[in-house]
Every structure is written in structure tokens, then in C-alpha cells.
Fold:
Amino acid sequence: MSEQLELGKVRQMWHLLEPLHAVLYYAPEAFEEAAALGYKTDERWPSYFAWRAAPLGAAGAERVTSAFYSFSPRMVEQYVPAAWDIASPGAVLDARLRALDRTYRKVFGERVDTPETAEAAALLRRAAEAANPAGRPLAAGNAELAWPDEPHLVLWQAATILREHRGDGHLAALLTAGLDPVESLVSFAAIGAASVERFASRGWSDQEWGAARERLVARGLLDADGTATAAGRELRAEVERRTDELAAAPWAALGPADRDRLTDLLGTLWVEVLSAGVLPAETTLGIGKV
Structure:
């Protein structure tokens, strides 16, 4: 990096971007577009796996499980590769942009077409294009897509590239810490990032969760009641610090002035998204808690 960027700023940018990306998985307009393709919408997972995995092409369950990491392989197998029998990845990607266009127009209203939104999109695109996708499959898949014409869709695509760039780096940090997929969730729940019930949405059985807890107790990372020890909290803090480090380069590439300007521009949109009531109050990401 050309400058020494404080990691708190990297984390702030993630906190601002995550809601702008995540509306795809919860907005009514996205479920309507998914239903039009033929996906069941009585729960969010059929469309979630299709929306998020489509940039990988017609990937099979093993590749999607690897890229998503924290989901049980059995859960992934329920939806992939069957997702591509319903609609091709290309059709899913087209519908994804339609869903975001409709969602953003509803949430942001006239703000969609303002110079400020266009400015935010241009700055975010610069950051996204500075993100090195090497070793980051989900970031690379999204970075390979053609850029949309409309600024608000450029903004969403750039936010998605940067979100997946960070997420891919987070998996590298978990691997370095020696935390397998289910251990990563158990250890995260143990520091209060989210409830165990929320993490159960990833499809692991009680037996698998319990076995992972026992492994972490044996490593001195958890107490017998499932709460993190000092060593467990230290390890999770190291994972988050390393994740921030691996996510820093795109933000350093913007420089301080443009980064501060982007923070101001995104803050307005962030408030609009959270005020829309589309996103759940609790997620598995631990935003604001780690």
C-alpha cells in the first residue's frame, strides 16, 4: 500500500457497504425476480445460492461449498447444482441486476439519479478495480462481469466486488487460524457475534456443532459452556485484524480525500437502506460486535 491506512477505516467501509450489497438477499423485488425465473421463494435460500453463486458459472456443490465456506455441504447440495436447471447463471445475473434496479429505486427514490450517487459509484468503481482478485474466487467472478451503464447499478456491483474481496480474504484468515467451516461459526458465536440460533441457518447438525465445540475446548479456545476463553477471543480478534489487512488495498488506492468523500456519500445511502426495514436485525456477520 502506498499509505499507512488505519484498519478502523477499512472496517468502517465494510460496515457502510454490507447493507448496500445485502438487500439483494432480502428485498421483495428480488424475491419477485427469483420467482419469475422459477425459484421457490417460501424461504430465501434457493435465490440466495443462485444470486451469489451465479458469477462462478454453472458451479457444482463442491466448488460453491468451498467458496461459501461456512455452509454445511449438505445444505449447499440442496440448492446447487439444481439452481442451474431452473435458470442459467447468465439469466440469474440479468435478473439480479433487475432486482437491484427495482430495489434501489424503491429505497432511494429520486436519489438514484442524483450527481452524488453517480459520484459515489465512480469512486466505488475505482476502489473495486484496485482490488486484486488473485486467490479470491467470488471477487474474481464478480469482477469479470461487464459493468452496468446506470450509476446506481455500478455502485451495487462495485460494492459486491469489494464485499466478496473482503469475504474471500476472511476465509484465508480463518484457514490461517486453523478454524474449519463449522469451527469458524462456533468460535464466532462464542464471542457473541450473533446467537447460536442465527448460525444454525448454515445447516450444521447439533452433533457437528457439538463436536466442533469440543475441538475448540480442547484447544483452549472455549470454556465448557461454549463461551470464548481469553485465548479464543484473542484468536478471533486476530482473524478480524488479518481480514481488515487483506481488505485494505482497494481503500488505500483511493487516497484520503476521496476515501473521506466516499464515506460521506455512502453514509446517506446507508441510512436509507437501514431505514427501509428490509434487512434483518441480526446477521451472522457480527457487524458492530467485532
Observations:
- The CA atoms of residues 25 and 122 lie 24 Å apart.
- The chain has a mean pLDDT of 94.
- The two ends are 24 Å apart (CA to CA).
- Residues 7-175+239-275 form one domain.
